[in-house]
What does this fold into?
Amino acid sequence: MRLLKINELGADLAAVERALSAGSFAETLRGPVREEVSAGIEENFANSSGPEGQAWPARKREGDGHPLLVKTGALKAAATRGQAEATDRELTLSVDLVYARTHQQGRAGAKIPARPYMGASERHLDRVGEIIAERGQQLLDEV
It folds into this structure.
């Protein structure tokens, strides 16, 4: 058994810090993490429910046969394949449609209920954690 000296530990920790500082998580967030979050949003639209599984409020009147929030598909496309910005610490997805916020949060004055579609289920978020942990491990293995 080999004993580790304090000065060796300091060198090892410095190497780990350099590896983590040099490795960019932005690409991980822009790629596999975004794909996983988008899959969660797709699931919300498919199930007509929010990320925690709560069903969206039904229409007051019968619609024209299309699923809730999917009349043209523009909202779903913008939410799953729209604008995304990533840094090494954050992924921001945004939907640039005038009615997007209304559907997400509702609008009491217009009697439009909230139908949250942005966000991912716990299962998808667990997978995001695994993706990030795998990338971190890859960086540490390179030390």
Summary: The chain has five helices and two strands.
